[in-house]
Amino acid sequence: MTKLIYKIVPEPLWREAQTAGVFLGAPVDLADGYIHFSTAEQARETAAKHFVGQDNLLLVAVDEDKLGSALKYEVSRGGALFPHLFAPLELGAVVWVKPLPLGADGVHVFPDLPA
């Protein structure tokens, strides 16, 4: 069974990655030296904490098994383990990409997320 992890990405940045054939990361990822991901359980909180009010976002689902040893789970907020990728994201590891729209209440509307 495929275990998915998730990345919230502004659509223009993701379109650049598609053109390049690889996702190098958002500015925060480049500054930190790794690509930040969330588990299904963490994704909504990540959106609320780091993307509040932002529109034109995409939710990218990635097969963690295709990331190899460059993927590490590290302690982050609240002591939770978050997936961090210490390499560029090869687009072959992407399972799907879906819009992450804002609802009328200003909260992002997520699709059903399999863990």
From TrEMBL:
Domain of life: Bacteria
InterPro entries: DUF952
One protein family per Pfam: DUF952
N-terminal signal peptide: none
Protein's UniProt name: DUF952 domain-containing protein
Source species of the chain: Neoaquamicrobium sediminum
